[in-house]
Each structure stands twice: as structure tokens, then as C-alpha cells.
Amino acid sequence: MSIVTICSLISSISFFAYAYSYFNAPHMKNEFKRFGLEKIGLTTVLLEIAGALGLLVGLKFSFFLMISSLGLALLMFAGVIVRIKLKDSIWVSFPAFFYMILNTYIFLASINLV
User: Fold this and answer.
1) Rounded to the nearest 5 degrees, what angle is found at the Cα of 74, between the Cα atoms of 38 and 4?
2) Under a CB-based contact definition with an 8 Å cutoff, are residues 51 and 110 in contact?
3) Could you report the per-residue pLDDT of 50-77, keeping only the tens digit for each?
4) Is 76:96 a contact under the CB 8 Å cutoff?
5) What beta strand segments (E) does the chain contain?
6) What range does the domain containing 43 cover?
7) Do the Cβ atoms of 45 and 22 come closer than 8 Å?
8) Is the pLDDT of residue 29 over 90?
């Protein structure tokens, strides 16, 4: 199993878990309220689900891997910006930064696969 495959599976599973918790844990929706983004919370989660599915499909069709990982990297970049604007701690901001870097890596590696 390649490192890109492992990274894609980690990212995909993580985004599915986040989406699950958004629908089942009230504190996740409260985070979007804290961000002042409650109106786009559902849209964000649906984009994360689409990205996670795209990563899985991308294991077979590399074009989807490239597009999905780029989309998730950009989504997490926006998340990092929001965290910086709210002056969140590095610890609280770390997951968004980590998944931005992880999906950027997947994207850059997938360019060679297309």
C-alpha cells in the first residue's frame, strides 16, 4: 500500500467521522456558531463528505483524487484562516492545519498520477 493511499484513507475516514459528529454532537454545530458561520455549516460538512468520497474514488481514478484533495486542502486553509481570526490556540487550530497539509501532500502526489 502506497503512502498516498494511506494518507487518502486517513483523510477520508477523518472527514467522514467529522461529518458524523456534526450530525450527532451538538458541540460541532456550536463551533460553527462560534465562528459566525452557522449558515454555511451544513454546506461545509457536505463538501467534506464529497471530498472524502472523492478521495476513496480517487484511489481507483486519480483525477478524482487530485480534485478532492485540492478541495479539502482549500477548505482546511479556510478553516485555518477562521481559527487565526478568532485567535484560537495552536492546539485547537492544529487539526485544520494538519488536514490542510495532508491534503496538499495528496494533491501534489496525485498530480504525478494523472
Assistant:
1) 125
2) no
3) 999 999 999 999 999 999 999 999 999 9
4) yes
5) none
6) 3-111
7) yes
8) no
The type of residue at 17 is A
Q: What is the pTM of this model?
A: 0.93
Is the predicted pLDDT of residue 28 greater than 90, yes or no?
A: no
Q: How far is it, in rounded angstroms, from Cα 29 to Cα 95?
A: 17
114 pLDDT higher than 70: no
CB 107 within 8 A of CB 70: yes
Per the prediction, the chain carries an average pLDDT of: 94
| Distance from C-alpha of 91 to C-alpha of 104, rounded to nearest angstrom | 20
Integer CA distances (angstroms), 73 to 24, 100, 114, in order: 24, 4, 18
Cell 485544520 sits on residue = 96
User: Which of 33, 113, 19 lies closest to 66, judged by CA?
Assistant: 113
Q: What is the rounded CA–CA span in Å between residue 71 and residue 92?
A: 22
Domain count for the chain, please give it. 1
